[in-house]
UniProtKB/TrEMBL annotation:
<protein>
    <submittedName>
        <fullName>Chemotaxis protein</fullName>
    </submittedName>
</protein>
């Protein structure tokens, strides 16, 4: 059980690190949108079609940051649940030893009741943990949509940039940075989802026969 819980700690920490990377990339997208807007303003009519695209890119970045911040809060709850369950499992282990040592003693039944209460608390923690994992998986799916949309926008940005004359390279660089950032977000989110699925599977397997 300890190795299983240790794996959970590592996985949750890994998810938090990946989400922090997503947050930083989303901030970079927002900055790229601001730079593109300034370039489009200087380009005037040559980049007329690029201006609304920069607003859309910025909105996508803000939406992504908002979702990541919410998920970070839920990831912290997942960490707390992992800590709580570790303590409960350790308490159960001590109760099992105490019950075994008190076998045949006059008030041994009272230990059985306390042990059962601790076991029920561990079951409740198990259920809450599973709910949080499922919720996080759904929220992570929500990040993938703006990442895909950003790639489509990047493609459209390249087309619009081709009309911008001497500003072509600057605006194309923005399109490339947005596309690259969207790919990174997709990779990071996929890693988070993989870690959550692994946690869920390992958690279920590690708890079979222990509840």
């Amino acid at each position: 059980m300890r190795s299983s819980t240790s794996s959970q700690f590592v996985a949750v920490a890994s998810i938090a690190a990946e989400l922090n990377a997503v947050l930083q990339v989303a901030k970079e997208i927002s900055l790229a949108a601001a730079n593109a807007k300034a370039i489009a303003f200087r380009a005037g009519e040559k980049a007329k079609g690029f201006k609304p695209i920069t607003d859309f890119i910025n909105e996508l970045a803000k939406d992504t940051m908002a979702v990541v911040n919410r998920i970070n809060a839920d990831t912290l709850n997942l960490y707390r649940l992992t800590v709580a369950e570790q303590r409960m499992r350790e308490a159960n282990r001590h109760f099992d030893l105490a019950v075994a040592a008190a076998a045949g003693a006059r008030h041994a039944d009272s230990l059985l009741r306390v042990r059962e209460t601790a076991r029920q608390q561990a079951e409740a923690c198990h259920g809450e943990f599973s709910i949080h994992v499922d919720d996080l998986l759904n929220q992570l799916s929500g990040i993938l949509y703006p990442a895909r949309a950003a790639r489509v926008i990047a493609a459209n940005s390249r087309i619009e940039a081709s009309q911008a004359g001497e500003y072509l390279q600057s605006l194309q660089a923005v399109a490339e940075s947005v596309d690259r950032a969207a790919q990174i977000i997709n990779e990071k989110v996929s890693k988070c989802r993989g870690a959550l699925v692994a946690i869920s599977a390992g958690y279920a397997q590690g708890n079979q026969g222990q509840l």
